[in-house]
Design brief:
globular, mainly beta
Amino acid sequence: MKTLKHLTLFLMCFSLITLSSCSDDDDGGDAGGGGAASGTITAKINGSSFTSLEMTSFANATTGGGQTTLVMQGNTQSQAISMIINGYDGVGTYQLSDDNVFRTASYAEPNISDPMNTQTWNAPYQDSGVIGEIKISEETDTHVKGTFNFTCKNANDGSTKSVTEGAFNLKKQ
C-alpha cells in the first residue's frame, strides 16, 4: 500500500509539473463523457461535487512490452482523482476488483505543506471484491471519454469514500 500511496503522490506532482507547460488550446468538444466538460473529471465524493481543473487533468496511454497502460488524472487545489488501467484495450468496461490489482483508482486530499500527511483512498483493497468500474465510451487520437464509480479505502485509518456519478472527457498527452 505504501508503494501505491507514493505512486499516487508522484502522479499528482508529475501532473502539476507537466501541465504547467500546457497550452490553452480548446478543441471545441462537447460535454460528452457522461457530462464532464472537455478536459475535466467530475464526480461526487461521499455526495459532494468534484470537478477537476482543466489545466491539471490529463490522460496518457503508453505501450511497452506489448501491453498498454492508460493513466487518467484530475486535480483541484485540494483533491485529486486518478485511475490506472494496465492491460488497456480501448473502448469497454474495466472492473475494479481485488482479483485484478492492475486496474486501480484513487481519491486523494493532498497536503501541500506536508506531503507525507496526504490522505489517499485506494481501490481495490484487500478483500474488497468488485468495488467499481471504469467505462471507456469513446477514444480518439486526442481524447478519451467515459464514466466511472468506485469505493476506496484509506490504509491509514480504514475509512472509505464513495466516488459516484464519475465522468471524464480528457485530452490525451
